[in-house]
Write a structure and sequence with these properties.
Helix content is about 25%, strand content about 25%. The chain is an alpha+beta fold. The protein folds into 2 domains: about 60 residues, Orthogonal Bundle (434 Repressor (Amino-terminal Domain)); about 140 residues, Umud Fragment, subunit A.
Length: about 220
């Protein structure tokens, strides 16, 4: 069904981290009771001032959230209008990252300009992140489905490297990039896939020396 309730729940579920009705209320600037009525379908529509705030918080198209029309996300401007759009939107570049075997220094290689993402200026303050600390990475493979799909794009906060149990992080293990759930163990950590067909990777002892946390994932699109 294409109702506000279902669109709201879909967008909240597609975030890489769990969000709740109190989070929704805080983002919109309304009471818990008002947010709960949106969430359970008792309120069938959302005033434009709240739809604008909630859409930016969720990273979705405001028109889609309000009416169900149009694409769920409209992050990047069309290529022909890219230069004009950059004047009023915040750009985050997309990167490839590698760790040479003979160095501890990460090499970030910026991808083509057309792969950069443009966000409304309120997008980052609502999430309590900064565009200057954010980088976009591409998801390769199906190991994180359904949370993240092959070819999805994620944003990471490069200043947020402290591991919180159960969150999704971008990490390097040796020269290999992983985007995984991270679980704390008594004597190490586990990199856990969302897809049960893929096994987890546990790092303990000296293996932890090969680990570099690039940042926590706080948004996805795909």
């Amino acid at each position: 069904m294409n109702t506000l309730e279902h669109r709201l729940k879909q967008a909240m579920l597609e975030l890489p981290h769990r969000v709740t009705i109190p989070d929704l209320a805080k983002a919109a600037g309304v009471s818990y009771q008002a947010a709960e009525k949106w969430y359970d379908g008792r309120t069938k529509s959302m005033r434009s001032e709240y739809a604008h705030k909630v859409a930016n918080w969720l990273g979705v198209n405001e028109q889609w959230l309000s009416t169900g029309k149009g694409p769920i996300r409209s992050v990047a401007a069309p290529r022909a209008d890219y230069a004009h759009a950059q004047q009023s939107y915040v750009k985050v570049s997309s990167y490839d990252v590698e760790l040479p075997t003979d160095s501890d220094a990460l090499i970030w290689t910026e991808r083509a300009e057309q792969e950069s993402l443009l966000f409304h200026p309120t997008f980052f303050p609502f999430r309590q992140h900064k565009a200057d600390h954010s980088r976009a990475l591409r998801v390769d493979g199906r190991s994180m489905e359904p949370a993240l799909g092959d070819g999805d794009t994620v944003l990471i906060d490069t200043t947020d490297s402290r591991i919180v149990d159960g969150e999704i992080y971008a990490l390097m293990v040796g020269a290999e990039l992983f985007i995984k759930y991270v679980d704390r163990l008594q004597d190490g950590i586990r990199l856990r896939s969302s897809n049960p067909s893929f096994s987890s990777l546990e790092l303990k002892g000296e293996e932890l020396d090969k680990l570099k946390v690039l940042g926590r994932v706080f948004w996805r699109a795909g």
